[in-house]
Amino acid sequence: MSAKKTLRMGLLGCGGIANRHAKTLVQIPEYELVAWCDVVRPNAERFQQEYGKGEVFTDYHEMFAKSDLDVVTICMPPFAHDDEVEVAAKAGAHILIEKPISLTNAQAQRMVKAVETHKVKTQVGFMSRFLGGVERIRELLASGKGPGIQYVGRYFCNSLHSPWWRMKDKSGGQLVEQIIHQVDLCRFLMGKPRQVFAYTGNLAHKDVENYTVEDVSGTVIRFESGGIGVISGTNCAIPGKWLAPSTFVAKGLVADWGPGANTITVTDGKEPVTEPFEGGNDTNLAQHLDLLKAIREEGATRTPMSEGAATQALVVAAYQSAETGKPVDL
I need a labelling partner for 123 at 20 to 30 A (CA). Which of 77, 258, 303, 309 fits? Predict the structure, then answer.
């Protein structure tokens, strides 16, 4: 168990998503932000100025060598991942890393090996695992109202995003960079996947320069339990809106996540009973606190690096299916 009162935290990658993490981390008194690292020095300097302390770095090797970090939050874009997880783990720093953790299964497995070898705690940024209602569903499934029969999820938006996001060799595609949140929650509730089949296409952005990712996709996942996940995504929906509703069906329950009502209906009684749950909980804070608890109590996080690698392998297999036109066994 970690007896240190305050844990030294560094932030690697000082872009847009890093702002969300920094604003969350300053709410956690057990963390002290002491280092900011970005290859573009002014990005790291802006964080130092906004939060009033910490040292600035442009090389994470130097940051880990000099800063004596207990924990690091890694917010690098997919294409920028290199050996930062291995370096952090060797330095003994626990890790929260944004998804996707890499663009290849081989690199993801190297990350898993490194953190397991050096016995550091990890949390991959699949915040949907901390959505309202998820704990209640897990309780109900454990009481016998399972297994999962179907998961239906959507991820709809309409934005050109950053230039790197539009290029598949940089972002991995919409399935890897965005829809992976739905894929992960589907895995978390449904169990071990057995087979995946997918279609993808670029129908509305053919004339956009360097737009090589898909703007529409449909993915069907078959699980070992026999349950089925169906996930659709597009970047051709309502401009300025990000919509990710989903429904989970099990033997004795139906759960819905907004927009609108967030409810769980227990269906195996004499009359269906519907209970609402809070849908606006701070999932970013929840995942950081879950990592902190694992560090303090030497327990497990909800989404260790191995889980991040498993979800990534599933979306990589979905792309393989889309390219070959055939289902892929897992």
Answer: 258
Q: Give the per-residue pLDDT at 298.
A: 93
- The residues, ordered by sequence, that sit 6+ positions from 195 with a Cβ below 8 Å of its Cβ are 221, 222, 327, 328, 329, 330
Given the candidates 3.40.50.1820, 3.30.360.10, 3.30.230.10, 3.30.750.80, the CATH classification of the domain at 128-280+312-329 is 3.30.360.10
Cis peptide before 193 (omega within 30 of 0): no
Q: Give how far the C-alpha of residue 30 lies from the chain's centroid of Cα atoms, to the nearest Å.
A: 23
Please state, in angstroms and as integers, the Cα–Cα distance from residue 153 to each residue in 126, 174, 186, 247, 265, following that order: 15, 14, 8, 6, 18
Q: List the 246-250 sheet strands across, edge first.
A: 273-276, 263-266, 253-257, 246-250, 148-156, 228-234, 216-223, 193-201, 328-329
First to last CA, the chain: 37
Weakest mean pLDDT among 124-133, 154-163, 214-223, 273-282: 273-282
pLDDT for position 2: 57
Reported as type and span, the H/E element at residue 97 is strand 94-97
